[in-house]
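Bumping with the actual sequence this time:
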Amino acid sequence: MADATLAPTLDDWKARAARARIPTEAVIDGKSVASASGQTFDCVSPLDGRLLARVAAGDAEDIDRAVRAARASFESGVWSNRAPAERKKVLLRLAALMLEHREELALLETLDMGKPIGDSSRIDIPGAAGCIAWFAEIVDKVYDEIAPTDPSALAMITREPVGVVGAVVPWNFPLYMASWKVGPALATGNSVVLKPAEQSPLTALRLGELALEAGVPPGVLNVVPGFGETAGRALGLHMDVDAVTFTGSTEVGKYFLEYAGKSNMKHVSLECGGKSPHIVMADCPDLDQAARAAATGIFFNQGEVCNAGSRLLVDETIKDAFLDKVMAHGRKLQPGDPLDPKTRMGAIVDERQLGRVLGYIEAGKKDGAQLKMGGTRVRADSGGYYVEPTVFDGVDNKMKIAQEEIFGPVLATITFKDVADAIRIGNDSIYGLAAAVWTRDLTTAHKMARALRAGTVWINCFDHGDNTVPFGGYKQSGLGRDKSRHALDKYTQLKTTWIHLGR
């Protein structure tokens, strides 16, 4: 038996995986339940292609049950009318429970989605718990307003919870993205129906169980696994859902706008795709640091990151030398067993996504881009879904691999001549989620940050941030913001109360 004081080894994680409890039932109105139809879907691990469990396949009837439970809990006031300080205490208990079950949640995340266990345990689970705690802490520090009216009136502007929130989250950061939605939605007094991606439902189901243990009342957080075309669509069309918050592809995000228009004009907030330009100027202050950031910016989480730096824009005068540095770092990030704590890059989430990534690699070669590194499936004998870090050079920004979101470890390298050229190429995309600029010139940094049409622009770094700053995009990268106090806007309504006082 391993020493409990030591970090778990590969053998430890494998032993735990063999005896792991896999949650399979929906959480509705405080109970773990099978789907109303009795139908299930296979939850397959991308590590080795093995069946982990058969999970309840929720559909319209299950969504309706969950929405009715959410509405009843909201109208009862058991959570919505609880003092913010009391909601804070419960959510802090939930965050503490998530950390207490950190290794269990990390294992479920890795088995379900394929990311390295080191990332699950050190980044995803602590990050998710930290997000819940951050919104718990802020909710009793948000003040309402008094408008500067004439003395004959008193005008109060107050925030109220929007009501029943449908939260639809992606498969690449299952628990982390759920916390970005559930944290502020619950903190502001709403009741929630959470629909995890069918590729990675396990930690969301466990979150529903832990929330009940923490003291979140039954019906306030419901979790319904199922497919987008059934459960997701039913949530988007439901007449008693007041708001939907979604993270995922731009294609699916547009469906929720349609659903809102076809139903009750529910509030819709979207965090969708990205094709982020990672721009390296000739006066980059540290080429080695920038190269490390460029490599991890696309190969972290197997490239399954909405704001991944998938377009590497490099000044033509330094491109060859810089790209050599990027590839040197990329070669150190080869896929390995996700249960090995030493692994830096894991498995693609499922066989369908594997085929999608490999298809884009073939498209890049067909369009004339130069394959400089990688480009093939590896570890096929494991039964899992792995692609090695892939780098293309000589990419034209009009190519498919430069315009479409691949969601895999594929880097497209594009050269530019000057600042104006870099800005033009950077903005030549339907997306506007994030961008990065490496330069030692402060004027250039400010000019480019202002000109780039992106929700976040990093200067001399990549993918930095915390819960204090908003996250979201321009253009077809979405509507609204996650994280920070600005996230509260998605889950609250502003009410004006005008009191006539007389002269």
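The tokens above came from a reply further down the thread. The CA atoms of residues 185 and 491 lie 6 Å apart.
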